[in-house]
Amino acid sequence: MTRHARTHGLLLGLAVLTAASTGCLVLGLNRFADDASVTFDARLVGVWRDTDDDVSVTIEKSDWQSYRLSYVHPIAAGQLTGYLFKLGNSTFIDLMPVRGQDPGVFTIAAHALVRVEIDDETLTVSPLSYDWLARMLDAHTAPAELSLVRTERDQLVATADSERMREWLRARPASDPVFGPAATFTKERPPS
């Protein structure tokens, strides 16, 4: 994948649903988060921008402890529901299409996962690495805990149950190659 396609995949993490034209998605049939691990961080709420790829994401508080993410990218726009959750020392967002809306590049109503680092002014997101997992799947060395399959649109889908995926995630170190390159978003300040 090119840097643009990789970054487009990263933006799934905070809103742009990865490489719509190439289908380079890593999805889960089941939730990555569970109720006990879900948290809310008010620092996520606001308008975020990645100027490198001309992407903006508006994140709003939604029902319960969820977020509504509205994204605009030169080739795609839409909304997602996200649940921020913690496992060990890492923080993730479990993203899914908004219920009742056309899923767009999601050919199935599934979940996508990104690791996030949040501070007051920047948001760094790293998705599961499609390239790394595809190579592992092709070499028959993909993590068995994920029960990965490849769809006809070349998406990778983890079919494992939620608990098994969370246990696998909990064991991932920060430098694990299963997470792709990071994209950084900067919080936009409202006009004074």
Lay out the secondary structure.
Blueprint (H helix, E strand, L loop, with lengths): L2 H11 L12 E3 L9 E2 L6 E5 L4 E7 L4 E8 L2 E12 L2 E8 L14 E7 L3 E6 L2 H9 L9 E3 L5 E3 L3 H9 L12 E5 L5
Parallel strand pairs: 1-11
Antiparallel strand pairs: 2-6, 3-4, 3-12, 4-5, 5-6, 6-7, 7-8, 8-9, 9-12, 10-11
What's the number of helices? 3
Using only CA atoms, what is the Rg?
15 Å
Please describe the biggest sheet, giving its number of strands, its sense, and whether it closes into a barrel: 8 strands, antiparallel, barrel
Q: What helical percentage do the residues reach?
A: 10-25%
Give the overall form.
globular
- Main sheet strand line-up: 3-4-5-6-7-8-9-12
Gap from first CA to last CA: 40 Å
Q: Assess the beta-strand content as a share of residues.
A: 35-45%
Low-confidence stretches: 1-23
Number of strands: 12
* SSE series: HEEEEEEEEEHEEHE
**In terms of structural class, how would the helical and strand content be classed?**
alpha+beta
> Mean pLDDT, rounded to whole units?
83
